[in-house]
Design brief:
about 120 residues, single chain, five-stranded antiparallel sheet, alpha+beta, about 30% strand, binds zinc ion, 2 helices
Length: about 120
């Protein structure tokens, strides 16, 4: 069966379950895949660390109301958080580790800090 190696592009003959022309190509392919995954995770971790730092700086006393622009000008990314907490009344707090934020309308946010780790 004639096949094309996804790593080097060489054509080779091999069994149906053989994907790469050589074990060198197989290993280098998996290493590259892991590199991409690690880069992706590193970038996400960087955004989360930055988000947490911004919230902590803006909220030194544990509770504050601020305008969305203040978050955004500091580089806050609203799409990255680590957990959600929904209150009995249906309000959704988003947390970046211990630092929480929740929209309260008119582009204002309330910032809170989680006291202890739950869930
Ligand atoms: Zn190859």
């Amino acid at each position: 069966m004639k096949k094309k190696c996804p790593e080097c592009g060489e054509e080779f003959f091999g069994r149906a379950d053989k994907k790469f022309c050589s074990s060198e190509c197989r290993i280098s392919h998996h290493n590259n895949m892991n590199k991409d995954k690690n880069n992706f995770m590193r970038n996400v971790n960087r955004i989360l660390r930055k988000n947490r730092k911004i919230l902590a700086e803006l909220n030194p006393d544990g509770k504050i109301t601020i305008h969305k622009d203040k978050l955004l000008t500091k580089g806050f990314n609203l799409n990255y958080f680590t957990s959600e907490y929904i209150t009995k009344t249906g309000k959704v707090y988003k947390y970046v580790y211990d630092q929480g934020f929740m929209p309260i309308g008119n582009d204002f946010y309330i910032l809170v800090i989680k006291k202890s780790y739950v869930e």
